[in-house]
TrEMBL record:
Assigned keywords, A-Z: Cell membrane, Membrane, Transmembrane, Transmembrane helix
Gene Ontology CC, one term: plasma membrane
Protein name, UniProt field: ABC transporter permease
Stored InterPro entries: ABC_transp_permease
């Protein structure tokens, strides 16, 4: 009887951990929504929902690229610096028109992604080290190009930052479209299957004849390009280029969204739906703390606690 009770308790604990990993992020979003509905004044206003959606859009776009990197058992710490670099390039080339400036900004992110991917795939540098180096270099280059805050006064960027379609902001539509695109790539394409295979076991992927090095480079290029797009979106929303602060700690927010969303740090799996919910969870958590007059430092502490819980759940499940 004792053995049966022990086995049943172990089974229940395993089931609870599985449910936490699979659906915990959605439950967290629901709890925060219910709390704010009940205790946060003016939370149920259209303007508030619009503000929340616009603020979460850049985080989500960065998290999509981070999910791909983590899916290969890597990480990209340079995403915040890429955002800063993209806002600097955007501001410098805006005189040629918003489309040209945006293209150059994205190309800057792609160049950083190529450097990250080359260091990881061909030189054999650990992803955390390679992207850390580009994080420092990218922010430094951004500040060399644009040493201080600069207002962005361009009709095209203003329309991007404040325009909408049937009440849905352009920034939200772009983020949603990118999420659907990345989800399609991960689930329905050969490249997506290769990403998961590499994350599951890189040596086995090589033995199977997969182009491991090429896939890794493309993954970090995608991460860099998406971070650059996020920088453009954030610049349009703020109507200013500020490489000093734009993207600061964005890597923390992106990793939190991905891990809380159910993508394990050990790679081999990418959950885009969970990543979207994770980004929303972070935004709601930040909003809740601010609305109830808690200092910003509590947001970082809360994110750290959420990461620990998510990693613990994934680790315990991996043991089984």
């Amino acid at each position: 009887m004792a053995d049966l009770a022990l086995a049943r308790g172990t089974l229940d604990r395993a089931r609870l951990l599985r449910l936490l990993q699979e659906y915990g992020v959605y439950a967290g979003v629901a709890v925060l929504l219910l709390f704010n509905f009940a205790f946060t004044p003016y939370f149920l206003s259209t303007e508030n929902f619009r503000t929340q959606a616009v603020q979460v859009a850049p985080v989500l776009v960065v998290a999509l690229g981070m999910a791909l990197a983590i899916g290969t058992e890597g990480v990209d710490l340079s995403v915040g610096s890429v955002m800063a670099l993209s806002t600097s390039l955007l501001s410098l080339y805006l005189g040629y028109g918003p489309w040209i400036a945006a293209l150059i900004a994205v190309l800057g992110g792609i160049v950083v992604g190529v450097a990250n991917g080359a260091l990881v795939a061909f030189v054999g540098v650990q992803p955390i080290v390679a992207t850390l180096a580009l994080m420092v270099a990218g922010r430094g280059l951004a500040l060399v190009l644009l040493p201080q805050l600069k207002d962005v006064r361009d009709p095209g960027m203003a329309a991007l930052g404040s325009g909408d379609v049937l009440g849905v902001p352009y920034l939200v539509l772009i983020a949603a479209a990118l999420a659907l695109l990345v989800a399609f790539v991960v689930r329905r394409t050969t490249f997506g299957r290769q990403v998961l295979a590499i994350g599951d076991s890189r040596p086995a992927a090589r033995l199977a004849g997969l182009p491991v090095s090429r896939v890794l480079v493309v993954v970090y290029v995608c991460s860099g390009a998406l971070a650059a797009v996020a920088g453009i979106l954030a610049t349009a929303r703020l109507s200013a280029s500020d490489p000093t602060s734009l993207g600061t700690l964005m890597e923390l927010s992106a990793i939190t969204a991905v891990v809380v969303g159910g993508t394990p740090l050990s790679g081999g799996r990418v959950r885009i739906g969970g990543t979207v919910a994770g980004a929303v969870l972070i935004q709601l958590l930040t909003t809740t703390l601010i609305k109830h007059d808690l200092p910003p430092s509590w947001t970082q502490i809360a994110q750290a606690v959420v990461i620990v819980l998510a990693v613990y759940a994934a680790r315990e499940r991996g043991r089984r």
